[in-house]
Amino acid sequence: MPATGPAARRSSGFLPVLLLVVLFLVAVTVYAVSALREPGKETAAPPSCTATADGAEYHLTPARAETAALIAGISVRRGMPARAASIAVATAIQESGLRNLDYGDDAGPDSRGLFQQRPSQGWGSEEQVMDRVYAANAFYDALEKVPNYADLPLTVAAQTVQRSAFPDAYADHEDEAKAFASALTGHSPAAMTCTLDPPSASGSPEAVLAALTAVYGPVEATVEGSRITVAGTGSYGWSVAEWAVASADALSLDSVAFDERRWTRATGTWDPAPAAGGAVVLTVFRAAEQS
């Protein structure tokens, strides 16, 4: 027959207390191990691209920063003001989170791509709106038809193009979009940088040039080994340079130099460097060259 009475009650009450003590000791041990861990073995921060404006910092993953760079670069190719890139980047953040989505929502089940453009509303075929370059140009084509779009509130300009069910949502991303667009159109030199992991594979100068010309159109460039020199000055040169930094993860770039500044994957910052002579100099990572 099971034991009853005060002794049994004391025994049953002892177990929860013992369990709490054990859990406490485990927690203390975990904390101690964490506190004593060597600084060099701390978990590294995840890769990130940061744009700075008016003393504030805004962050995107490298993949999303590369998309923002594509959108901004296309506005430069078209000769549009930086405001156009701000509107387009804010719209893409709201519509897709700067991802090339192959699905839509209940309000637009056939919506696709960066801007959730709908083939049924005349934006193009599904294949076309899933092409990021096509989608960005289609957005700008529509934006240019909005009278005085550069002087309108951002959310009004974006809504006129998009006809969204949430017309005020674009304003939520205005500051972030403006910071990245200003850097990526070259109007804020060295205002964006990326901190990346070491490249996992060698890059290809041919792939870099193909990506560059898809955004900016034909460029004057020369290739010498792993180095690509792209002619460019002023805001155009800075746009190409910042595009390259934003694309460095995808294209395995090691460094970007322009206008007495140089970004390297090793530092993740723009540092002083010798002038590149009116050109943007990109260095592609090649595993065989590393010692």
Residue stretches low in confidence (pLDDT < 50, at least 5 long) are: 1-12, 28-41
Helix content range: 40-55%
- Using only C-alpha atoms, the radius of gyration works out to 26 Å
Number of strands: 9
Please outline the major beta sheet: 6 strands, antiparallel
Mean pLDDT: 87
Notes on the protein architecture:
With 291 residues, the chain is α+β, with helices and mostly antiparallel strands. The strands form two sheets. It has a six-stranded antiparallel beta sheet. It has a three-stranded antiparallel beta sheet with strand order 2-1-3. The chain is globular, with a radius of gyration of 26 Å. It contains ten helices and nine strands. Helix 2 runs antiparallel to helix 3 and helix 3 packs across helix 7. It has two domains: 137 residues; 91 residues, no CATH class.
Features:
single chain, 291 residues, alpha+beta, six-stranded antiparallel sheet, three-stranded antiparallel sheet, 9 strands, disordered N terminus
Briefly say what this structure is.
The chain is α+β, with helices and mostly antiparallel strands. It is built from ten helices and nine strands.
